[in-house]
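Quick review question:
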């Protein structure tokens, strides 16, 4: 028996194992191979090593621009192929926003000179099996299955070349005024999500361990609309994406505060305020100020704070523009396990907490 070798190249979304297991049919696609093709790039033999590198770079750039996308499996379909007499049985996918992401991908790939197949329009689907034109569908309904599109993969044949998480850049703030609001980890569409009792979502992750770690980071929270907070003190937690990682030196850079940027409470902080905050932080570091991971200080977990500075001018770090007067920090990751988490995209940013006082007027 000669085993078929797949040499097609594509950018796709991998289907979570629990969803793929439920979609599996006798004689159909193995669950571990189930995917949703976003862009087909033709035969992998036509792509050079330079093409591979550029595709990986583009996936990272696009992944930084989009957050995870909710998707619902909306029914069963049949794509007929009169030429081969072999029809594809597919699960149809309804994913608002996915078409925009795909169009962005296609544009960037073509701009980079990467060939993109345009033989067919884009109908989001997951191929479950191939059957003869006279055969009945092996599955009639799939029920209320849903999932989250959390990463893009560049694949050649059956080999994964690179996987890039979707981690759209945003500032996330939590005000813990209501200490009675609790949260927990729940399973949703193949992922583990941290949610509060009122239904507010606080992040979804590929593994339960990642979700449990996130759960431990913030004990209680509630979401407040801009300018609805009453006067008083609140615990504020802000998360900032990693702006650049120096692979050779294991340095991770990030912007902590930017001047005159409107936050979730419709407030801003000017350059003088940022400078005062940055200086106070460093002068009290390891006494009243702390940085760490999972409730342990940086020095105890193999990460060292090596730089803290105010941007003297506008410039660019990595792919991100830095405004004059911004506060930036850099950490050196000594611990091998944590560095692996940074490189894989599991650790994506800094989390800064403090006390904010809201007053009338």
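Suggested answer, residue by residue:
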């Amino acid at each position: 028996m000669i085993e078929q070798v797949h040499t097609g190249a594509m950018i796709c979304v991998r289907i979570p194992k629990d969803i793929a297991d439920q979609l599996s049919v006798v004689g159909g696609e193995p669950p571990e191979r189930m995917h949703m093709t976003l862009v087909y790039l033709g035969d992998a033999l036509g792509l050079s090593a330079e093409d591979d590198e550029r595709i990986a770079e583009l996936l990272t750039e696009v992944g930084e621009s989009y957050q995870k996308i909710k998707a619902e499996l909306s029914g069963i379909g049949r794509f007929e192929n009169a030429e081969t007499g072999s029809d594809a049985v597919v699960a149809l996918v309804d994913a608002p926003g996915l078409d925009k992401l795909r169009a962005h991908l296609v544009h960037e790939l073509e701009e980079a000179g990467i060939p993109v197949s345009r033989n067919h329009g884009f109908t989001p689907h997951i191929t479950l099996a191939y059957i003869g034109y006279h055969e009945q569908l092996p599955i009639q309904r799939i029920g209320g299955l849903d999932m989250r599109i959390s990463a893009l993969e560049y694949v050649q044949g059956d080999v994964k070349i690179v996987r890039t998480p979707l981690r759209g850049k945003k500032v996330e703030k939590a005000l813990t005024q209501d200490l009675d609001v609790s949260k927990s980890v729940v399973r949703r569409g193949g992922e583990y999500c941290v949610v509060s009792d009122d239904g507010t979502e606080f992040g979804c992750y590929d593994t339960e361990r990642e979700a449990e770690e996130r759960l431990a980071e913030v004990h209680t929270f509630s979401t407040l609309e801009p300018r609805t907070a009453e006067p008083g003190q609140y615990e504020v937690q802000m998360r900032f994406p990693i702006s650049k990682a120096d692979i050779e030196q294991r340095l991770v850079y990030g912007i902590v505060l930017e001047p005159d940027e409107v936050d979730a409470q419709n407030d801003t902080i000017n350059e003088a305020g940022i400078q005062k905050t940055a200086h106070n932080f460093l002068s009290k570091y390891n006494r009243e100020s702390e940085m760490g991971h999972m409730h342990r200080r940086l020095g105890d977990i193999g990460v060292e704070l090596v730089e803290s500075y105010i941007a003297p001018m506008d410039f660019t770090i990595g792919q991100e523009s830095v405004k004059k007067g911004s506060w930036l920090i850099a950490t050196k990751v000594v611990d091998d396990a944590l560095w692996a988490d940074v490189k894989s995209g599991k650790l994506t940013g800094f989390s800064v907490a403090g006390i904010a006082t809201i007053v009338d007027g």
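Why it works: The chain is about 20% helix and 40% strand. The longest helix spans residues 49-63.
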